[in-house]
Amino acid sequence: MSDTGSGPSSRNASVERGERQSDTSDSETTDIRRINQQPFSREGRYDPNRFRLHFEKESKEEVEKRKKLAREKVLQQVSDKELEVDINKIYPSEKGLGFPRRPSWNYEMTRENLLKKEEKSYRDYLDELHSRNPPDTLSHFEHNLETWRQLWRVLEMSDVILLIVDIRHPVLQFPPSLYHYITGDLQKQAILVLNKADLCPPPLVIAWKHYMASQFPHLEIVCFTSHPGQPYSTVLQKKRMRKKADWGHAGGPIDILKACQNITAGRVDLSSWEQKIQRDAVAERFDGECDDGAESVLMEHQTDSAMELSSPSQELYKDGILTLGCIGFPNVGKSSVINSLVGRKVVSVSRTPGHTKYFQTYYLTPTVKLCDCPGLVFPSRVNKQLQILAGIYPVSQLQEPYSSVGYLCERTEFLSVLKLTHPSLLEKDPHDRNQESEKFNWTAWDVCEAWAERRGYKTAKAARHDVYRAANSLLRLAIDGRLCLCLRPPGYKQWEKHVDLQDIMVLQGRTTEEEGTGDRDDEEDGESSTEPEEERDRDADDDEDGDDEDEGFGHPRQKDNKPPGFTVNMYDVLGENECA
């Protein structure tokens, strides 16, 4: 399971974390890789590994095959048509790509009998799924029954479900089977939240919104961003010392409120929620930041005994309280949405898939309750490389990241963005490198080697280019939105003249489409809808060497003299001189 070119310490630690086994799983097979193992004492009552991610293992032969391909395959820019993704191809209805349902039960059953019934039902679900889908056709998806149980409880408790997706690739994270189960079997309503809207050009935001509305006509759809007007201005621009995240400045809470008002139709008094949004807006205008102590938030931790023998409530809005369940894949920003709705940090945020381990509830107001569910990866037919770039699989646990780097480079202008020098030109004069680099054929391995050279990544013993670490760094840039890959809906056309364009630009915190890649003050640079830097510093999945820091590449941008009619390519996100 070794990775050529990687430093031994980082490589071995990553593999070791993934291969350790635990007896806490409901799906104990040799085909499952248990990720993010945490040390704990057997005498302790709490097992921290109970809710860790369980994904299917890949064979050593598959890994080596992709690694060889990354060394040999010449990268070719794909056509714009290749960026279009159809939800019906990601979740084909004939393949049975549903999700495990909670089996029926009654109060006469014991706890042990209930758990055994759930485990049997889950095994039957996996057998049926694999029987209808040949090997290597399924994406990575969650194999930990404990985490699926969290979803069942949240669905049962909630009156309205917030299905949160990343606007850069929403169809990857919107399983139709879940939507139809919510609206059909449970007879509840769902709201699709297109999160991280600041990372996409406004016309593309509108295009995705219209596409999802055409596929699901009765679905309420809102756009959301936790950090409007704060795009990355360079690929490595991040200050370690920065003002704390301003959760009260989000764009979209009022739209979620309006959607809930349409659904509840006056059956719940939401005036307190509306007043809270107005207070947060006033505090932002006068103070520039919200007072964390202004309002207390009641938080409830759910216990096992409360969850295991609880039936779905047939009564909506019980006691006049609206319960909003927040459900989504890892890294779509569920915790950031909750923090933004509350107006201050109540949930820790991380780009590590599986960071939220256990569902919790928060009283936003006396009549509105939020319920946060751990991120769940549903089975689909999405390309695994694209799944990695969407942040669904932990980057630090990848045995072979190079093919994902190649997939990214074929869909972005990586040379102009990263200012790479082809490895074969490293001995030449620096002035001739960039021009000649464009004439060379690039492989994914070349890109990683060139990035390792640019960033100074070396292996510990031999001082070779640490291509494994470089590949991980590039993938993190993509996940964070600093090297932005945005997919498009089928039949994508330009929406620059749409009547809603101005509203989207206001939501994003910009007044013109070119704004967002313009001049910014270096002291307040670089935060998008992912998460604040202080949380990343504590993230166990973060680069220990500070890949995300500004190490001399993040100089303030010089103002360009743009000719009339100049248009910024929002897919590149970065300008021509940002890595210079």
UniProtKB/TrEMBL annotation:
InterPro entries: G_CP_dom, GNL1-like, GTP-bd, P-loop_NTPase
Spans annotated as Disordered: 1-48, 509-580
Biased composition regions of type Acidic residues, renumbered to the chain: 520-551
Alphabetical list of PROSITE patterns matching this protein: G_CP
Protein name: Guanine nucleotide-binding protein-like 1
Family matches, as PANTHER family: GUANINE NUCLEOTIDE-BINDING PROTEIN-LIKE 1, LARGE SUBUNIT GTPASE 1 HOMOLOG-RELATED
Keywords, in A-Z order: GTP-binding, Nucleotide-binding, Phosphoprotein
Polar residues: bias regions: 1-13
Gene source species: Echeneis naucrates (Live sharksucker)
